[in-house]
C-alpha cells in the first residue's frame, strides 16, 4: 500500500527504533536530574552513559508514597506497549523482574477493549505490563539507582545558576539547609508544576510558550483483592464511551490486573459529572459496565477509593526559542501532560529518553541551546498531543456548539470512521492499536487507503 510521506512519521519511527549505544563518550563530570518521576529516572539512565556522576534531586521520599510531586500516582495508569518496549530496551530484564515481583504481563488474548459497549477486535501481538504506577516507578528507580554512577538525594530544588548563556549549577535545600551543586548538564523533570521556565525567564532568557486545552476530567480509582477464578475474564479491560448516554456518564472505565493479586479499577467522567467516591456507588456503576468490572469490584477493597481532577492538557514549546540557556532540557510532564484518559504519559517519557540519547550521541555543541533535542522531542509531543487533544477538542466543540473549519471537520469524520472500523476490520484495528499504544505515528490513521478501508468496513457492518 502506497503511503503519504510524512516527515514527522519518519523521525518518530527513528526515535522508536533508537538503540542503546554500545560506545559512548563521557561528556560531563556531573549531570543533574531535577525530579525522580519516570521521565527523570529514564533521563538519568541515559545520562549514566555520558556522565561521570548523575545526581537525581527529588523532593519526595521515594520510600514514603504517595509522592506529592505526582498527586495522581494513586490513580490508574497504563504502561502502553510502546513505552514498555522502550523501558525494556534501557533496562534489560525489567519486564521479567516486575513479573517476579507480582506485576502481570497480559498477552493479547487476555485483553479487551469496548467502544460504546461493543467489543473492539482484539490486539493481536502487543502484550501489556499491568501494575500500579508506584509499583512501576519503584522498580524503575531501583534499576536506575543500581548504576554505580547514579544516586538520588531528597531535596527541594529552588533555582538554577547561569554562566553567560549556560546553566552551571542547581540550587536546592535539604534538612541541612541550602546548597549549590555545580553541574554541566541539567534535566528538568519536575512535572506539570515545574518552575524552570520562570527561573529561565528571570535570568533574562526566553520562556517557552505554553499551550493549554481544557479537559476537565475527573477520575476515581480503587484497588480490590483479585481471586483465582479469573479465567473467564480478561486481565485488562478498557471501556471507552464516545457518545451520549454512557452509564453514569462514564467516559472511560479500566479494570486492570495489578501486583499482589489485586484489581485496579478506574472510572472517569468529564465535568460536571464525577465518578462515584463511595464504595456502594462505585460498585453500582461497575455493574453497568462490561462484566469484568462487577467481578473485579466485588472483591475485598484493599485501598480506599482515591479521586483526582485534571483541568487541562498542556505543553511547552521549546523549538521556537531564540535565546535559551545551553545545557538545560526538560522531559516528561514538564514538557507536555495529557488528558490521562488516553494513557500516553509514561510512554512519552520513555521516548523522551530516546531523544536525549540521540542528542547526546550526536556530538552536540553543548555550548549552544539543545535545539536538536527540542526538535526531536517535539515529534513525540506532537504525536501524543494529536492523539489526546484531537478527541478532546472535538468534544469541547460539540459541547459548546462551536463551528469548525471544513478541513478539521473532515479530519474528525475520518478519525471517527477509523475508530468505528476497529469493531469490524482487523487490519484497521491493528493500525489503530499500534498508534494508540505509541508504537506507531498517528499520521497512519489519516492515510487515504486506511480511511477508505474503514468506510467500507463500516458500510458492510451497517448492511442488514
Give a brief rundown of this model.
The protein is α/β, with parallel strands linked by helices and 464 residues long. It has helices at 7-16, 38-47, 81-90, 94-100, 133-145, 196-202, 279-286, 291-297, 345-360, 371-400, 406-421, 426-436, 448-462; strands at residues 28-34, 51-58, 104-106, 111-115, 118-119, 128-130, 150-154, 156-163, 166-174, 177-182, 185-188, 209-225, 236-240, 252-258, 262-270, 301-317, 328-330, 336-337.
Written account of the structure:
- The chain has 13 helices and 18 strands.
- With 464 residues, it is an alpha/beta fold.
- It folds into three domains: 7-74 and 133-212 and 313-390, FAD/NAD(P)-binding domain (3-Layer(bba) Sandwich); 106-132 and 213-311, D-Amino Acid Oxidase, Chain A, domain 2 (2-Layer Sandwich), CATH 3.30.9; 404-462, no CATH class.
- Helix 2 (38-47) links the parallel strand 1 and strand 2 (51-58).
CATH class label of the largest domain: Alpha Beta
What is the total number of structural domains? Answer: 3
The CATH superfamily of the largest domain turns out to be FAD/NAD(P)-binding domain
State the CATH topology of the largest domain: FAD/NAD(P)-binding domain
Report the helical percentage.
25-40%
**Backbone CA Rg:** 22 Å
Q: State which percent range the strand residues make up.
A: 25-35%
Instruction: Name the strands of the widest sheet in spatial order.
Output: 5-4-13-14-15-12-16-18
Distance between the termini: 30 Å
Describe the main β-sheet briefly: 8 strands, mixed
* CATH architecture label name of the largest domain: 3-Layer(bba) Sandwich
Coarse shape: globular
- Kindly report the average pLDDT value: 92
Structural class, by secondary structure, is alpha/beta
- The tally of strands reads 18
Give the count of helical stretches: 13
Amino acid at each position: 500500500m502506497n503511503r503519504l510521506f510524512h516527515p514527522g512519521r519518519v523521525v518518530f519511527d527513528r526515535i522508536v527504533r533508537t538503540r542503546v549505544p554500545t560506545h559512548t563518550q563521557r561528556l560531563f563530570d556531573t549531570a543533574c536530574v531535577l525530579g525522580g518521576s519516570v521521565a527523570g529516572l529514564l533521563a538519568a539512565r541515559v545520562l549514566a552513559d555520558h556522565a561521570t556522576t548523575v545526581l537525581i534531586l527529588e523532593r519526595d521520599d521515594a520510600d514514603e508514597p504517595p509522592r506529592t510531586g505526582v498527586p495522581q500516582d494513586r490513580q490508574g495508569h497504563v504502561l502502553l506497549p510502546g513505552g514498555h518496549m522502550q523501558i525494556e530496551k534501557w533496562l534489560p530484564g525489567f519486564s521479567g523482574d516486575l513479573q517476579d515481583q507480582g506485576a502481570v504481563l497480559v498477552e493479547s488474548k487476555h485483553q479487551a477493549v469496548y467502544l460504546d459497549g461493543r467489543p473492539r477486535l482484539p490486539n493481536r501481538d502487543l502484550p501489556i505490563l499491568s501494575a500500579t504506577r508506584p509499583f512501576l516507578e519503584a522498580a524503575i528507580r531501583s534499576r536506575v539507582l543500581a548504576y554505580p554512577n547514579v544516586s538520588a538525594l531528597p531535596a527541594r530544588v529552588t533555582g538554577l545558576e547561569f554562566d553567560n548563556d549556560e546553566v552551571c549549577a542547581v540550587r536546592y535545600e535539604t534538612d541541612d539547609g541550602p546548597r549549590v551543586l555545580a553541574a554541566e548538564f541539567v534535566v528538568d523533570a519536575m512535572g506539570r508544576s515545574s518552575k524552570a521556565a520562570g527561573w529561565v525567564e528571570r535570568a533574562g532568557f526566553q520562556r517557552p510558550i505554553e499551550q493549554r486545552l481544557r479537559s476537565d476530567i475527573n477520575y476515581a480509582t480503587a484497588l480490590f483483592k483479585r481471586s483465582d477464578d479469573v479465567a473467564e475474564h480478561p486481565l485488562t479491560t478498557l471501556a471507552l464511551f464516545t457518545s451520549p448516554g454512557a452509564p453514569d456518564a462514564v467516559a472511560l472505565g479500566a479494570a486492570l490486573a495489578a501486583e499482589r493479586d489485586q484489581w485496579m479499577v478506574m472510572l472517569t467522567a468529564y465535568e460536571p459529572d464525577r465518578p462515584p467516591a463511595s464504595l456502594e456507588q462505585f460498585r453500582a456503576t461497575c455493574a453497568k459496565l462490561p462484566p469484568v468490572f462487577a467481578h473485579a469490584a466485588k472483591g475485598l477493597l484493599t485501598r480506599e477509593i482515591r479521586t483526582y481532577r485534571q483541568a487541562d492538557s498542556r505543553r511547552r514549546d521549546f523549538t521556537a526559542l531564540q535565546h535559551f540557556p545551553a545545557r538545560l532540557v526538560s522531559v516528561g510532564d514538564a514538557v507536555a501532560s495529557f488528558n490521562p484518559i488516553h494513557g500516553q504519559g509514561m510512554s512519552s517519557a520513555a521516548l523522551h529518553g530516546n531523544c536525549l540519547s540521540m542528542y547526546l550521541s550526536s556530538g552536540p555543541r553543548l555550548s549552544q541551546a539543545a535545539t536538536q533535542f527540542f526538535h526531536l522531542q517535539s515529534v513525540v509531543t506532537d504525536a501524543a498531543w494529536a492523539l489526546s487533544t484531537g478527541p478532546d477538542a472535538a468534544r469541547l466543540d460539540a459541547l459548546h456548539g462551536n463551528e469548525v473549519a471544513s478541513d478539521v471537520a473532515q479530519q474528525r469524520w475520518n478519525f471517527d470512521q477509523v475508530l468505528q472500523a476497529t469493531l469490524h476490520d482487523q487490519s484497521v484495528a491493528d493500525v489503530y492499536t499500534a498508534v494508540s499504544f505509541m508504537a506507531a505515528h498517528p499520521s497512519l490513521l489519516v492515510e487515504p487507503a486506511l480511511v477508505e478501508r474503514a468506510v467500507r468496513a463500516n458500510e458492510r457492518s451497517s448492511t442488514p
